[in-house]
Amino acid sequence: MKKAILCLVLCLVALPMMASTIIIGNPPDQGSGNSFPFGTAYNAEYQQVYASSAFNTGPIQITDLYLYNTQYNSGATQTPSGTYTVSLSTTSAGVGSLSPTFSDNIGLNNTQVFNGSIQQSWNFGNTLDIHFTTAFNYDPNGGNLLVDVVGNGISIPINIYYDVSSNGPFQRVYCPFGSACSTGVADTPGYGLVTGLGYNTGVPEPGTLLMMGTGLVGVVGAIRRRIL
């Protein structure tokens, strides 16, 4: 019986996970870019909301954030120094309704996913990969996705201008000149950073886990009855 139970438990916890990437905002604006918040001395809060309709998936586990530098070459040779704090949440704030007050946009499940430095050598055409130390479970059926970024002690010799789109399913709010503010500027809906999100699929919903757990209990009970 112990072997049967162990097998069932392993089947429960070793659910299949598949890694993939979704890029939101392609194609980028030609010959353009924006340095907020990861390409300049941005010592403030920044938010970008992504419409849930941009995700053609079920629940996912987001593990990475990617930014691209393919359109404007500033000659930068390194990314900023300093510390960035990145948090994700599911929010009711949407494209066209993002508040200039940062705190109004943050969802109840706000989760810090990264805190640290992104400093590294850089060449035009590179992709910035911010690998999360804590993955974020996101269900598009629950609302839109909000990325919240706070920069502290940030400096850089030459700005990096990451790809942007003026027609994306997103909107951003930022502090002018990268100086700290509690109420920022909500940009034009549709304008924002072209963003890649690395994620795992196969994240079980709570109802699925409950059914599997109930089934496990039933199987164990049946095995016990056969033995007795």
Describe the protein.
The protein has helices spanning 2-13, 102-105, 206-227; strands at residues 18-24, 45-50, 60-68, 81-91, 111-116, 127-138, 144-155, 164-165, 170-174, 185-186, 192-193, 195-201. The strands form three sheets. The chain has a six-stranded antiparallel β-sheet, with no helix packed on it. The chain has a four-stranded antiparallel β-sheet with strand order 1-12-3-6, with no helix packed on it. It has a single domain (19-205), classed as Jelly Rolls (Sandwich). Helix 1 runs antiparallel to helix 3 (206-227). With 228 residues, it is an alpha+beta fold.
Summarize the structure.
It contains three helices and twelve strands.
Sequence-ordered SSE layout with sheet pairings:
Elements: H1 2-13, E1 18-24, E2 45-50, E3 60-68, E4 81-91, H2 102-105, E5 111-116, E6 127-138, E7 144-155, E8 164-165, E9 170-174, E10 185-186, E11 192-193, E12 195-201, H3 206-227
Antiparallel strand pairs: 1-12, 2-7, 2-9, 3-6, 3-12, 4-5, 4-7, 8-11, 9-10
Based on the model shown, name its key terms.
228 residues; alpha+beta; Jelly Rolls; six-stranded antiparallel beta sheet; four-stranded antiparallel beta sheet; 3 helices; 12 strands; disordered N terminus
The CATH level-2 architecture is identified as Sandwich
Strand order of the largest sheet: 5-4-7-2-9-10
Q: From the alpha-carbon coordinates, what is the Rg to the nearest angstrom? A: 21 Å
Shape: globular
Overall helicity: 10-25%
Termini distance?
11 Å
Write down the CATH topology.
Answer: Jelly Rolls
How many alpha or pi helices? 3
- Poorly predicted spans: 1-15, 207-228
Overall tally of structural domains? 1
CATH class: Mainly Beta
